[in-house]
Design goal:
Blueprint: E1 14-19, E2 28-36, E3 48-51, E4 56-62
Antiparallel strand pairs: 1-2, 1-4, 2-3, 3-4
Protein name: YwbE family protein
InterPro entries: DUF2196
Length: about 60
C-alpha cells in the first residue's frame, strides 16, 4: 500500500520495484530512487520511479 502514495517517496530512498518485464512473475528489483516519474499523488499499481541503476518500475515496497 505504501508504494501507491507519492508523498511517502523521495529521492535517495531504498525501495523494491516491479519492472514491466516482471509484472507477470512479480519479481522485485531492489534499488535507490533516482527520479519519481509519476506526477499524480497516488497510483493504484504503485508510483513509477527510476532507480540509480537506470531501471524503471512501480514501487511495491519501501525499505
Amino acid at each position: 500500500m505504501e508504494g501507491k502514495q507519492r508523498s511517502k517517496l523521495k529521492k535517495g530512498l531504498k525501495v523494491k520495484v516491479v519492472q514491466k518485464k516482471d509484472q507477470r512473475s512479480g519479481n522485485l528489483t531492489e534499488g535507490i530512487i533516482k527520479r519519481i516519474l509519476t506526477n499524480s499523488a497516488t497510483h493504484p499499481h504503485g508510483i513509477k520511479v527510476m532507480l540509480e541503476s537506470g531501471k524503471v518500475g512501480r514501487v511495491k515496497e519501501i525499505e
